[in-house]
Amino acid sequence: MKTRISFTFFLISLQKLCSAYFVTVEPDSSECFFDRVKTGTKVSLTFEVIEGGFMDIDVQISGPDGKAIYSGERETNGKYTFATHMDGAYQYCFSNKMSTLTTKTVMFTMDLGDAPDPAAVKGTPEQQHQEHDKLENMVRDLSAALTTVKHEQDYMNVRARIHASINENTNSRVVMWAFFEALIIVAMTVGQVFYLKRFFEVRRIV
């Protein structure tokens, strides 16, 4: 019983911080976000453009020293994971400066892993053994896998809504075009009837 309680507490303590956001990027502008983390922390940025124009956006990740860690142009979706190289605020920017008219909507998540524990690294051999315990590694992998599955489900739901909206829009256009074609056919039929009627009409000379 004691082992089960300890294992449950261990699972809760390994739960990662996950934040999901929707941001609207106006034309010829950019939106930036910051996370203050410690050295050696695993950071993951996942994003997808869900609305606007050609569904593309410029992405850039910068460190506290101002150097670019990742930079991408006209990307529809993506995922980038890295380990922080120094303490400080890391910046994530979505730029829509390539567009002058269209507003873009971006869905993104920022996952922050657990920062390395100096006491566990520089502690006693028993602490080092616990840090590298197989059970702990398995739980960490399971936690990361569950987070990934959750993100994939969120993106699948967003894509399903986008595709449903596209299908509804396409269906409405098809119905309107079919109705327009029917009106044209009726008008042509009526016109031909009147034309043929006048062609065969016998006029009397008074």
Q: How would you concisely characterize the structure shown here?
A:
This protein is α+β, with helices and mostly antiparallel strands. 44% of the residues lie in helices and 32% in strands. It has four helices and eight strands; from the N terminus they run αββββββββααα.
What does this structure look like?
- By secondary structure, this protein is α+β, with helices and mostly antiparallel strands.
- The protein has one domain (15-161): Sandwich (Jelly Rolls), CATH 2.60.120.
- Helix content is 44%, strand content 32%.
- The protein has four helices and eight strands; from the N terminus they run H-E-E-E-E-E-E-E-E-H-H-H.
- It has helices at residues 2-13, 118-122, 125-131, 134-199, and strands at 17-25, 30-37, 42-51, 57-62, 68-75, 77-83, 88-95, 104-112.
- It has a four-stranded antiparallel sheet, with helices on one face.
**Structural class from helices and strands?**
alpha+beta
Q: How many individual β-strands?
A: 8
N-to-C CA distance: 117 Å
Mean pLDDT: 79
Q: In what order do the strands lie side by side in the largest sheet? A: 1-8-3-6
H and E string: HEEEEEEEEHHH
CATH architecture assignment name? Sandwich
For CATH, the homologous superfamily is named as GOLD domain
Count of helical segments? 4
The percentage helix is 40-55%
Share of residues in strands: 25-35%
- Based on CA inertia axes, which overall geometry fits? elongated
- The CATH topology is given as Jelly Rolls
CATH C-level category: Mainly Beta
Major β-sheet annotation: 4 strands, antiparallel
Tally of discrete structural domains: 1
Radius of gyration: 30 Å
Q: Show unreliable segments.
A: 1-18
